[in-house]
Design goal:
Layout: E1 9-14, H1 16-19, H2 29-44, E2 48-53, H3 56-63, H4 73-95, E3 102-107, H5 109-113, H6 115-130, E4 134-139, H7 153-163, E5 168-173, E6 194-195, H8 200-205, H9 218-230, E7 234-239, H10 245-250, E8 255-258, H11 264-273, E9 279-283, H12 285-292, E10 302-307, E11 314-318, E12 324-329, H13 334-340, H14 348-352, E13 366-367
Helix pairs in contact: 2-4, 3-4, 7-9
The structure holds glutamic acid.
Glutamic acid binds at residues 16, 54-58, 80, 138-139, 141, 152-153, 214-216.
């Protein structure tokens, strides 16, 4: 498995049990400082880092003196609202002395299911990353009800990894990997070093239980692994309790790696290629040549538009000879494309009456 330092874009999920002391309910600030050093070290090696952190409910329940039992949904939401402020501040306080700017990003399940919202959160995360910021992501627990929430940050972290095209995802947990049986109950349980395919046998080995503060058990970690690896992102489950946990993982500490199916770019292209187009956009010859050179599609190169698509919808890309040359996600609606086609990107604001994006279909959103 490639070391973490070889990762271009890394998502690290931090479970509540690592961040918040079970007995006292207090932030484990020393541990967080160690993690911050890991993040600074990886960024120094050129790896972009996004953190997905749980802990808002665990921190908030202590402040509100809520009982140490399963909370009702609205109680957890109240706890999350209180704890999220503390969580964001804790990361800021740990990372800013190392010269790292942090951002709080709260997402819901719908942000990944709705293609327009997905594109919005993707664009924001991309922008933050390109500015050298470390986004600290959590579920927006205060607005998410049971039916529409992730509820666990394992799957959320996998979704974030897919959204931003990360090549590695690390779930820092209170276990050191994936076992063929529950190691707490079975002395003969064996840990896998590497899992290259998630077979039904592997799935049958995942128990259900989560540990006290966190919702995710092995089941949610396996679902996360499936999501990530199918999108070309390798995933590790590693024990976060060691000092400098990411450094330790890089040095080969006990863990389980789930191998990626291809790379994020080609996985994204496969995903787009399998979509059903909602319309089409016809190009001039110059634009076809530009796409061939790996460029994005600009409004200036568009000669016609068909269908009734919305922002984020897949559209067919048509060459002047009438042949389809691929699919792409449009950053404009069909109506908007009709207005801006053939025009320079600098004219978009005048034509639409509001500022738009310079690119109509980004090269990362295209499968040719
Ligand atoms: N979003 C929840 C929190 O921050 C955690 C979900 C999980 O434990 O995975 O407390």
């Amino acid at each position: 498995m490639a070391p973490l330092t070889a990762s271009q874009r890394l998502v690290v999920k931090i479970g509540s049990a690592l961040l918040v002391d079970r007995a006292s309910g207090e932030l484990r600030a020393d541990w967080l400082r160690q993690l911050a050093q890991d993040v600074a070290w990886l960024m120094g090696q050129g790896t972009e880092v996004v953190l997905v952190s749980s802990g808002s409910i665990a921190l908030g329940r202590r402040v509100l003196a809520l009982p140490d039992i399963d909370l009702a949904l609205d109680q957890s939401q109240a706890a999350a609202a209180v704890g999220q402020i503390q969580l964001a501040r804790a990361y800021e306080e740990a990372l800013s002395p190392l010269g790292i700017v942090t951002a709080q990003v709260l997402v819901t399940l719908e942000d990944s299911q709705d293609r327009r919202r997905y594109l919005n959160s993707r664009a924001t995360l991309e922008q933050l990353i390109s500015l050298g910021v470390v986004p600290i992501v959590n579920e927006n627990d205060t607005v998410a009800t049971d039916e529409i929430r992730y509820g666990d940050n394992d799957r959320l972290a996998a979704q974030i990894a897919v959204t931003i095209g990360a090549d590695q995802l690390v779930l820092l947990s209170d276990v050191d990997g994936f076992y063929n049986a529950n190691p707490q109950e079975d002395d003969n349980a064996r840990r896998f070093d590497v899992i290259d395919v998630i077979t039904p046998e592997i799935e049958a080995m995942a128990g259900d239980a989560g540990s006290g503060l966190s919702k995710g058990g092995m089941k949610t970690k396996l679902i996360a692994a499936k999501t990530a690896t199918a999108a070309g992102c390798a995933m590790a489950i590693s024990n976060g309790f060691s000092a400098r946990p990411l450094f330790a993982l890089n040095e080969g500490v006990n863990s389980t790696w789930f191998l990626a199916n291809g790379d994020p770019k080609s996985a994204r292209k496969r995903w787009i290629a399998a979509m059903k187009p909602m319309g089409s956009i016809a190009l001039d010859q110059g634009a076809v040549a530009a796409l061939g050179r790996g460029k994005s599609l600009l409004p200036a190169g568009v000669s016609g538009v068909n269908g009734d698509f919305l922002r984020g919808d897949p559209v067919e890309i048509i060459a002047p000879n009438g042949q389809s040359i691929g699919l792409g996600l449009s950053r404009y609606t069909a109506g908007e494309v009709a207005l801006i086609r053939g025009h320079k990107s600098t004219e978009i604001e005048d034509l639409l009456g509001y500022p738009g994006r310079s690119v109509l279909i980004h090269r990362d959103d295209m499968s040719l």
